[in-house]
Amino acid sequence: MSPGRALSLLGALALLASLPACPTPCVSGDLGGRANLQELVLVGVPAKLALHAVLSECESDKTLPSSLAVELSGPDNLPVEVQSTFNPASPTVGFLQFTPMQTGRYHLFAAFDPVGGLLQTDIHAAQNRSTETAPQTLPFGCDSLERTLHGAWACDSSVMRDGTALLQFPEGRLAVAGNVVWMMDPRQIQRYVDTGTDLELTGTWPHTEGAVESLLATAEELVTLHAQTVQRITFDGTGLTSGGTTRWAPTTGPGPLPPGLGGPKGLLMRAGDTLGITLSPLLSSSSFSNEACPYTLVKGRFERTASACSAFNGNVVGFEPGGLWVEEFLSSRVLTFHEWTGAGLVPRATLSLSEVQTTSLLPTGQPTVLPVLTSNQSFPADTSRTLRPPHVLMPVYDPLQRRILLEYLDSGLIDARASTTLMWGRSLTITPGGTPTGLRVLSRPPALSSHGVPNP
């Protein structure tokens, strides 16, 4: 859009804002209702959106809109080419069409003149990656789910292969790193290796720290957070060893969590030798709702540093080793990615959520949880398949451009959940009164850069 047109649009907006209200008596009648906009579109697919004027039926004023001005900006806040259509024969509705070329948030600014109202809304464009992953169906349900390179599934507290349980740990939590499966229960930690046919026990470490709240796992190292302590377990090739435990739970402040409160008491993040522990809001001693406190590796165990904790507000809706996903309610609802660094927790990128819903559960003892964005709107037909709601999108942080990208993987998932490697949910048959067909699981493809190519 040219600067002149942008200025004329701003002038029209100012004029509309200054118009007097309809004289009384006036019967309010919303002829157009809320703008019937798609809040989700796909990168590279033309999107045609309808805009509806909002009018009042006043006895002394039968004026109708005579024009429509539209301005659209992209994720980089630069103007985006958009075509608008206004037909004086149907003055209460207009159309706009554009083709999004970047993932992220597009901000729409529209005005009917001289009446009809102003409209500001966000439209989210996602990269369609549904053809880059082959869905699998599992005959069981899982709140927590990971997979070894040899194909065993760590589902909640069981390790499954071909629908059969290899091992079950009623009080255990599981974490997968390559073909290594770590098991943690209130009394011991065990390390297994998936051989492709069985699980081989390679080490056991007894402890008295109780149930695990959060964990970070690699093939050779496991960091576990318990109700009061954090410990580091390593594998030296023959067995497990520990550098000792460190108390992390605050001794002052609001006190212990009430019994039965869901979710972990704390979460773990890591950048090199700097560990971050995010305190539950009820344990935070800050005036902010949350804190993330730094610990450093000293002689095999993590110790609290002299640096201050990083304070932040909002609800944690996802976590991974590199940072936190936080939902905040400011002037609008936004999703922010906070990166964990050697200097603490740093907010890196924010995405306005508009009408898109965020779904996230934070099970205790799960290695990673990523938020899932859902919408029940209908996409335009894709060239490869017909998309159907509910649609699920994955937010991905791009560290090069410091932006949140959106990826579309699948539709028709109920109670969708995601980790850094998988997305899964219940799938319903697409027939009236359809019945559950099992757990639908998709492996997440390599993360994209902001230019739509996989990150190296």
From TrEMBL:
<feature type="signal peptide">
    <location>
        <begin position="1"/>
        <end position="23"/>
    </location>
</feature>
<feature type="region of interest" description="Disordered">
    <location>
        <begin position="435"/>
        <end position="456"/>
    </location>
</feature>
<protein>
    <recommendedName>
        <fullName>Lipoprotein</fullName>
    </recommendedName>
</protein>
<feature type="region of interest" description="Disordered">
    <location>
        <begin position="241"/>
        <end position="261"/>
    </location>
</feature>
<keyword id="KW-0732">Signal</keyword>
